[in-house]
Design goal:
The chain has helices at 2-29, 38-46, 141-162, 174-193, 198-218, 234-251, 254-261, 268-314, 320-357; strands at residues 51-57, 60-65, 67-72, 75-80, 94-96, 99-104, 107-110, 135-136. The protein has 9 helices and 8 strands.
């Protein structure tokens, strides 16, 4: 009874801090004399950036700068994002190796040959088009968060591997990780791939599940300096789906291809009609994987921030109770969704791999 009470209290504190953290971020996005723009605030929250915004102190934003790495016509250029002085409007110019750079909406462009960009100019003036952007290999907050999650994975499973007694009984953190590993093996890998082949793909499926789950959870932790919405970036989910697609294509046997291009037991006119549809399905499957994870994670963040924004839009304390209640409700759902989406992505990946290796049955 005491344990359940403690868990409930811990969850309540987590959700309260999450609400306060989101509300604080919204408040910081308001500028004196400017109308609150909920769309800009939400997009700022969910998109990538070249530094981590923490909070404001005496009217000045406190940030953690990250390295900017650019490949230009004069070779490699590196500097810290703090050189832009937290500017995202194209007003601050950074000069390196005889080249000038400005940052507009988290995109880095070549600046014009003018010595400075006037305050009267719009952000896009003095900046060339997309073709003149340098190649950006910067360590953005999403990239940094991804590297951090990899370190967490190595530490978690490194300690888990050592947390076993001599007779194989799990201790410490292994009591948490072993049931999850067994669950992925028994409920995902074996039923979808089969006992004959599942061991080849179990490491990939385990990495996929824990990698997505940990990154999703990191995006929910309030006041965590390196929190980032990694799974809400379609490039990230697209790359994971591409890996699944490549594995599925490589391991596919002749029975798989025969069922796509010339289905057995089907009349010839229907084969001609169905073959293009089945062929498109090869690419639709990874695309659906990519969009499902991206959309569900992004939607949760947008809904929670939109509900909190109602307080600042209405500019009334009377809206607060309803806004807080529904925001906490959505936050509870998000805690479940981040795990469910990791499971669904892993399950469908195993299903696609298993279907590509399925032997012909007579």
């Amino acid at each position: 009874m005491q344990i359940n009470t403690f868990k409930t209290l811990l969850l309540s504190v987590f959700l309260s801090l999450s609400f306060i953290g989101n509300a604080s971020e919204i408040k910081e996005s308001e500028q004196p004399g400017e109308e609150f723009n909920v769309t800009d605030m939400i997009m700022h929250h969910v998109k990538d950036a070249h530094d981590f915004d923490l909070w404001e102190w005496n009217g000045h934003p406190l940030t953690i700068p990250l390295p900017i790495i650019l490949w230009t016509e004069n070779g490699l250029v590196t500097f810290m994002s703090s050189e832009f002085q937290h500017d995202d409007s194209g007003k601050v110019i950074v000069e390196r190796k005889g080249l000038k750079f400005v940052k507009i909406h988290e995109e880095i462009y070549y600046a014009s040959e003018a010595p400075h960009v006037s305050d009267a100019m719009s952000p896009e003036e003095g900046v060339h088009h997309e073709a003149d952007k340098p190649l950006d290999f910067s360590i953005t907050k999403l990239v940094f968060s991804m590297f951090l999650s990899i370190i967490f994975l190595v530490l978690i499973f490194g300690f888990s591997a050592r947390a076993y007694s001599k007779d194989g009984v799990p201790k410490g953190i292994a009591k948490f990780t072993e049931p999850l590993v067994v669950f992925i093996r028994d409920e995902v890998a074996i039923p979808n791939i089969g006992e004959k082949h599942y061991k080849r793909f179990l490491p990939f499926l385990l990495t996929l599940f824990f990698f997505i789950w940990i990154n999703n959870m990191m995006g929910l932790i309030p006041f965590f300096p390196f929190s980032a919405n990694l799974s809400g970036n379609i490039a990230f989910t697209g790359l994971l789906a591409l890996i699944t697609f490549i594995i599925t294509t490589i391991v596919a046997n002749k029975n798989y291809w025969k069922h796509i291009f010339w289905m057995p037991g089907v009349p010839v006119p229907m084969k001609i009609f169905l073959a293009p549809i089945e062929f498109m399905g090869i690419f639709i499957k990874p695309i659906s994987l990519m969009i499902r994870l991206f959309a569900n994670i992004t939607a949760g963040h947008i809904i929670a921030l939109s509900l909190i924004s109602l307080i600042f839009i209405a500019k009334s304390a009377w809206v607060s109770p309803g806004s807080i209640f529904f925001s906490v409700f959505i936050s509870i759902i998000e805690v479940l969704v981040v795990a469910i989406q990791a499971y669904i992505f892993t399950m469908l990946s195993a299903l696609y791999i298993g279907s590509a290796m399925e032997e012909e049955e007579h």
